[in-house]
Automatic annotation (TrEMBL):
InterPro entries: Aa-tRNA-synt_II (IPR004364), aa-tRNA-synth_II (IPR006195), aa-tRNA-synth_II/BPL/LPL (IPR045864), Lys-tRNA-ligase_II (IPR002313), Lys-tRNA-ligase_II_N (IPR044136), Lys-tRNA-synth_II_C (IPR018149), NA-bd_OB-fold (IPR012340), NA-bd_OB_tRNA (IPR004365)
Binding-site residues, Mg(2+) 1: 418, 425
Required cofactor(s): Mg(2+)
Family indicated by similarity: Belongs to the class-II aminoacyl-tRNA synthetase family.
Biological process annotations from GO: lysyl-tRNA aminoacylation
Organism of origin: Demequina lutea
Transmembrane spans: none
CC terms in the record's Gene Ontology section: cytosol
Subunit structure: Homodimer.
EC identifiers of the protein: 6.1.1.6
Gene: lysS
The protein, known as: Lysine--tRNA ligase
Record keyword Ligase present: yes
Domain Aminoacyl-transfer RNA synthetases class-II family profile span(s) in chain numbering: 189-505
Length: 509
C-alpha cells in the first residue's frame, strides 16, 4: 500500500517551487494531457453506486465471479502495483469502498502500464468490469476499462493516522475524506435539521425566513458585525437573532412560527462559542415559557431518537448521557442562594453582589455592572458550571431580559428559563413581553446602558414597537443553538459540529 504524508500548504507560484510530490503529480497531469487524454473529464459513464455493488455481491463465495458488468467511480484510497495484477480501492462520499483488480489479462500491457504510472492516492477513478469476489473474500470489480475522473495534485494524509484538530478544522474537505466521524457528523447534522423541522411541522408551526441584514440589531444582548450598503448609503448589521422579525409575524397572525437561521455575534470563540452559528427560534401565540419548555424537551428527545434510536446517547468519549424523562428545574435565585448559603433576592444591593464577585475572583466589565448581570455571573460560577443533567433554570433578573414579560407573581424577575446540559446553555425561552408601552421603557433603559458604554445593549427599534402597537397576542418564544444541540447529543466541541467553522487565517495565507 502506498501512503503519503500530508504536504504543507505552499504559496509557490511556479512548478519548480512546488514540493516534490506535487511536482510529480503535476507532471503526470501534463503527461496525460499531452498524450491526448483527460485529467478532468466532464463526466464518466457510471452505472452503479459503490455501496450498491458492495451490498449486491456480498453473498458471493470467495473467488466467485459473475458476468454482471458494473461501472463505478470514487476516490482512490488504496493502491498496490504488483507485476501483472494491480489492486486499488475506491471510496464514495459516505466511506463505502470496493476493490478494483486491474490485470494484464483484462486491460492489456499499455493500459496496465498507464494505471501504474498515472494513478495516485486521492485521484478520482472510473472503473468498469465484472463484479465478483476476490479469493480473499473482498467484493471486487475485475476491471476491463478505467479512466482518471479527476487528478489529485495534492496527496492525501496517511489514512491510519489521526489528523491534528487544526488540520481537521482548516481542511474539512480532507477530514471528510479520511475520517468516518467527520462524515457521520455531517450526516447527523442533516438528520437533526430534518427531525426538528418535522417535529415543528407536525405541531402546526410554519417556517419562515427573516432578514440577515438589518437596520437595527436586536433580539439578544450581543455585539453585532457591521457592514455598509452602498446603494442606500447606510450601515447595516448582520443579525444577532431573528426574534424581532418572528414576533412581527406573530403580530401579523402567524400564530405558530419558527426559523432555523444563521446568527452572527462579534464576540469571542471557544469550545462552545462561534461568531457564526445556527439557531432554532420558535414562537407560539397564547403560549408561555412553560409551553416552550414542554416543546423544547419533546423535540430534543425526538431528535435523539431519530438520530440514535434512544434518548440515552453515547458521547465521543464513550460515556452515556441521558436526555430522557422529565427534566429537572430550579430557580436562578433559589439555587444561587443555596450555593452561597445566604438568600439572594431581586432586592439584594449591587454593592453586596460586587463583594461576592470579588471574593469568588469573578471579574465583571464595569460598563455592564447592574444587579441582574452580577446575579447571573455569580450563578454561572457557583451553579451553572456544575450542572450536568438537562435542567431548566427558571426566572431571571429583569435587567438582563428586556424582551421578557414580568413574572406573574414575583416582582423584579421575568418569566424566562435557560436550559443547561453538560454545563453549558443549550437554549432559552420567554413568556414574551407584548405590552408596547413597557417594551418601549425597556428599550429606553437599554439605550441608556449603551450610552454608558455597554456595546451589547439593544437599540430602540421604532418599527418593531409600531408592530407591537397593532396588538401582539400573549406568546411563548424559544431559541436553541443547533451546534450546541449537536454538542449535547455527541459530546463534541462546537468546531466539530460546524462543518466549516470560522478560524483565524494562517500567517501568510
Amino acid at each position: 500500500m502506498t501512503e503519503e504524508p500530508i504536504v504543507p500548504t505552499s504559496d509557490a507560484s511556479t512548478p519548480d517551487e512546488l514540493p516534490e510530490q506535487m511536482r510529480v503529480r503535476r507532471d503526470k497531469r501534463d503527461r496525460i494531457l499531452a498524450a491526448g487524454g483527460e485529467a478532468y473529464p466532464v463526466g464518466v459513464p457510471v452505472t452503479h453506486a459503490i455501496a450498491d455493488v458492495g451490498a449486491a455481491y456480498a453473498g458471493l463465495a470467495d473467488g466467485e465471479e459473475t458476468g454482471d458488468v458494473v461501472a463505478v467511480a470514487g476516490r482512490v484510497v488504496f493502491v498496490r502495483n504488483t507485476g501483472k495484477l494491480c489492486f486499488a480501492a475506491v471510496q464514495d462520499g459516505e466511506g463505502n469502498r470496493v476493490q478494483l483488480m486491474v490485470s494484464f489479462a483484462e486491460v492489456g500491457e499499455d493500459s496496465l502500464a498507464a494505471f501504474k504510472g498515472d494513478v495516485d492516492l486521492g485521484d478520482h477513478l472510473f472503473a468498469k468490469g465484472r463484479a465478483g469476489k476476490s479469493r480473499r473474500g473482498e467484493v471486487s470489480i475485475f476491471v476491463t476499462e478505467w479512466a482518471i475522473a479527476a487528478k489529485a495534485l495534492r496527496p492525501l494524509p496517511v489514512l491510519h493516522k489521526d489528523l491534528a484538530e487544526d488540520t481537521r478544522v482548516r481542511q474539512r474537505y480532507v477530514d471528510l475524506i479520511v475520517r468516518p466521524a467527520a462524515r457521520e457528523m455531517a450526516r447527523n447534522r442533516s438528520h437533526l435539521m430534518r427531525s426538528l423541522r418535522e417535529s415543528l411541522h407536525s405541531r402546526g408551526f410554519i417556517e419562515i425566513e427573516t432578514p440577515m441584514l438589518q437596520t437595527q440589531h436586536g433580539g439578544a444582548s450581543a455585539r453585532p458585525f457591521v457592514t455598509h450598503m452602498n446603494a442606500f448609503d447606510i450601515d447595516l448589521y448582520l443579525r444577532i437573532a431573528p426574534e424581532l422579525f418572528l414576533k412581527r409575524a406573530v403580530v401579523g397572525g402567524i400564530e405558530k412560527v419558527f426559523e432555523i437561521n444563521r446568527n452572527f455575534r462579534n464576540e469571542g470563540a471557544d469550545s462552545s462559542h462561534s461568531p457564526e452559528f445556527s439557531m432554532l427560534e420558535a414562537y407560539e401565540a397564547y403560549g408561555d415559557y412553560m409551553t416552550m419548555a414542554t416543546l423544547t424537551r419533546d423535540i430534543v428527545q425526538g431528535a435523539a431518537v431519530d438520530l440514535f434510536g434512544s434518548t440515552e446517547v453515547t458521547h465521543a468519549d464513550g460515556t452515556q448521557y441521558d436526555l430522557g424523562g422529565e427534566w429537572a428545574s430550579l430557580t436562578l435565585y433559589g439555587s444561587l442562594s443555596e450555593a452561597l448559603g445566604v438568600e439572594i433576592t431581586p432586592e439584594t444591593p449591587v454593592a453586596e453582589l460586587e463583594r461576592r464577585c470579588e471574593t469568588a475572583g469573578i471579574s465583571v466589565d464595569p460598563k455592564r455592572v447592574n444587579h441582574g448581570k452580577l446575579v447571573e455571573v455569580l450563578w454561572e460560577h457557583h451553579v451553572g458550571d456544575h450542572l450536568s443533567a438537562p435542567t431548566f433554570v427558571m426566572d431571571f433578573p429583569v435587567e438582563t431580559s428586556p424582551l421578557t414579560r414580568d413574572h406573574r407573581t414575583q416582582a423584579g424577575i421575568v418569566e424566562k428559563w435557560d436550559l443547561y446540559v453538560k454545563g453549558f446553555e443549550l437554549g432559552t425561552a420567554y413568556s414574551e413581553l407584548v405590552d408596547p408601552v413597557i417594551q418601549r421603557e425597556r428599550f429606553e433603559q437599554q439605550a441608556r446602558m449603551a450610552a454608558q458604554g455597554d456595546d451589547e445593549s439593544m437599540r430602540l427599534d421604532e418599527d418593531f414597537l409600531t408592530a407591537m402597537e397593532h396588538g401582539m397576542p400573549p406568546a411563548g418564544g424559544m431559541g436553541m443553538g443547533i451546534d450546541r444541540l449537536l454538542m449535547a447529543l455527541t459530546g463534541l466541541g462546537i468546531r466539530e459540529t460546524i462543518l466549516f467553522p470560522l478560524v483565524k487565517p494562517e500567517e501568510g495565507r
